[in-house]
Amino acid sequence: VPSMDAVDYFVRALRKQGDDPTTDAEPGSVRELKAAVFDEVRPIAAIRKEFNPVFFQPAPDARERELLEKTRTTTRRLLGLLRNLDFLRGAERQTLVDALEGLETKLSEAIPTTRDETSSAA
After folding, report:
1. Same domain, 88 and 117
2. pTM of the model
3. Which pLDDT value is given to residue 47?
4. Which of 46, 65, 49 minimizes the C-alpha distance to 121?
5. Same domain as 110, residue 64
6. What is the pLDDT of residue 122?
7. Domain span at residue 46?
């Protein structure tokens, strides 16, 4: 017996496809999803992992914002690691820190702009 979460996911995917005719779901995708939910009784996590890209594609601006946020987070981590490395000292270290801080600033400035454009378009 499939879980309620899996059945709910199936229903939402069908609604999404019906509401949005531009959905890039291939004709066999619904059959594959139905088989995964009802025949194979796969866990919801596995179903989401496989079918989210097919039925619930994020808007292009959401993908861009996510990429900006991930890049900023990675830049911050790299800065933290770089500051703790002993083999880099002096001007070489400062050059790298300055470059990464500049990148972090540019990313931070770009993220709110993307959000503002997204909310004004709604």
Report:
1. yes
2. 0.51
3. 97
4. 65
5. yes
6. 43
7. 4-55
Condensed to tens digits (0 to 9), the pLDDT of residues 85-119 reads: 888 788 888 999 999 999 999 999 998 664 444 44
Amino acid at 2: P
Q: Retrieve residue 87's tokens.
A: 């083999």
**Contact 30/10 with Cβ under 8 angstroms?**
no
Helices 27-34 and 44-55 cross at an angle (nearest 10°) of 170
Compute the distance between CA of residue 26 and CA of residue 14 in angstroms, rounded to an integer. 13
**Are 39 and 64 found together in one domain?**
no
For residue 102, the number of C-alpha atoms closer than 13 Å in the C-beta half-sphere is 6
DSSP alpha helix (H) spans, 56-89: 60-83
pLDDT of residue 101: 96
Burial of 108 (0-12, 13-18, 19+ CB in 10 A): middle
Number of domains in the chain: 2
Cβ atoms of 34 and 64 within 8 Å: the answer is no
